[in-house]
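note to self: dont lose this again. the chain is below, predicted strucutre after it. 146 aa total, dont forget to put it in the shared folder this time
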Amino acid sequence: LRNKVASVVLAVRTLEKGEALAQEFRQRTQVEINVSAFGSEAFCQAQAQADLLVNTTPLGMTPKVDAAPPVNWELVKPTAFVYDIIYTPAETRFLREAREHGCPTQNGEHMLAGQGAAALALWTGIEPDADCMCMALRQELEKKEQ
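---
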């Protein structure tokens, strides 16, 4: 929203919850914010137009790694950036399918490390190296995955 995107589509499982979230965002920006249900025609149109797809659901997170948001990859532009806030597993089904479609991808490890770095700075005044924190996080997650 801060980067003045043209529009945002919240694709949701529950329209009422999505509309409530959209209303909160609308109070903070002039950006057009729409809500569509997974599987709807509006959802399909949004997939075809998106430059960025972000999964903020638990779909695909360990232990239910076979789950994924219902994206039709044939509709998605191969140039669309695909981001999943999940970090276990490192590559979710959502990210794997996006990568196989040719999309650039990123998981949620950097976000988690960044949140930890921000919290440490807020509480202690120490400015940690977020990249170092991200590497340490990846090492610990790899240990758990084995």
